[in-house]
Amino acid sequence: MPAEGYCDQRFAPVREAFGGSFAERGELGGAVCVLVDGRVVADLWGGWADRASRRKWQPDTLVNVFSVGKGLVAACAARLAGQGRLDPDAAVTAYWPEFGAAGKDAITVRHLLSHQAGLPAVRRRLPAGAMLDWPVMTAALAAQEPWWEPGTGHGYHVDRAGLMQHNAYFNPGGLAGAGVINSPAWRAAEVPSANAHGTARGVARVYAALAAGGRHQDAAVVTAGALADATTEQASGQDLVLHRPSRFGLGFQLTQPERPLGPGQAAFGHFGAGGSLGFCDPGPRLAFGYVMNQMGPRWQNPRTRALVDAVYACL
């Protein structure tokens, strides 16, 4: 199916890359939106919104963007920090007293947001479906002893919650998503790091404000100081859960050679399982959102890579 929507002639390669994903890279349905200096230069969608290929993708089609939501949570945390309502260097117990159990009283908010808290998994076996129960999951995390000394290493806190890695993805049952992620229960649950639903337009608009230093039109979305702190490297190197390099600010993934967000060094955002992506690059004031419904490789998705490369080739 041909791509629908708007694309500035200068960014025609983005349309070509998007269309090429349907023709050559197994895309079923999806959308991409790109803004430069606050102006939409590409807003494209296409394909099917259902497995039976009966319902066409629309510009307002919502889809699960998985860990792209982590970047949106990071933006919310930075906003709260700029307002003085959240202190990244405060102990988590200042906001969540029960969290101090099992030797976690010294863990800071900064540790949590940069994946250094040592809590990627719950050791105690949880009942199937527990990841959709907020009280059960928060109580389990509060009681869990860290898997490593907080602050001494980092490991991706997958939160779709050897033994640690297995439990991070498969405890409780259904955590990995098979048979769950298309259910009403999953969509209604409060799992901000994994079950965000959105459009390419929505994701890109958030990052357009961040690309502009935290401002949208005349409104301050995030203060410049809080945004600078959130996008400063907090942890990098070999990830104790993923077993490959990762690099984080306060909730945001930062660009890295092994998984670049374009050629610049200041880009930040977050990938989602299967290839979805939201990020911005403050240099060219670029904002990018890509969502889809056909899962692809988690680490290096050729559809995502083709779109990002095409965008930068047009700058």
Question: What is the rounded Rg?
Answer: 19 Å
| Helix-strand pattern | EHEEEHHHHHEHEEHEEEEEEH
Spatial arrangement of strands, main beta sheet: 1-3-2-13-12-11-10
Structural category is alpha+beta
Biggest sheet details: 7 strands, antiparallel
Binned strand content: 15-25%
* First and last CA, distance: 27 Å
Number of helices: 9
General description of the model:
The protein has 315 residues and is an alpha+beta fold. Strands 1-3-2-13-12-11-10 form a seven-stranded antiparallel sheet, sandwiched between helices. The mean pLDDT is 93. The longest helix is centred in the N-terminal third of the chain and has 15 residues, at 68-82. Helix 2 packs across helix 8 (224-230). The chain folds into two domains: 4-69 and 194-314, Beta-lactamase; 70-188, no CATH class. It has nine helices and 13 strands.
Structure keywords:
315 residues, alpha+beta, Beta-lactamase, seven-stranded antiparallel β-sheet, two-stranded antiparallel sheet, 13 strands
